[in-house]
Specification:
Elements lengths: L2 E9 L2 H17 L4 E6 L9 E7 L2 H13 L1 H13 E10 L4
Antiparallel strand pairs: 1-3, 1-4, 2-3
Helix pairs in contact: 1-3
Amino acid sequence: MPIVQFTRFKTDKPEEMTKVVGRAKKIFEKHGAEFLRLSRFHTGHWAGELLVTTRYANWEVYGKVQEAVAKDPEFAQVMADGLKIAELQGRNIAVSIDL
C-alpha cells in the first residue's frame, strides 16, 4: 500500500523555491521515491503556500528513502537552501487504503 508524504512551505519567493524543490526531486527519486511533485494552494487557509508531495511504494521503501536522504550531503545543502527562503509549515503522512 503506497505511502504519501505531504510537506507545506510558506515563502515569498516561490520561483526560487521551485528551483530548490527541483533539486530535491532528483535526490528523492534517485533514492527510490516513486515521485516528488510540487503544487501551490490557490484557495483556502493555505492559499499561496507550496505543497511538496512524495510517494513511496510501501513503508519499507519509505524508510529506506528517508534514511538515504538523511545521509545525503547534497540533500542537506538543498534543505539548507530551502529554509533560507521558505518556512516549513507542516508535514503529514497518508497511507493508501485498498478499495
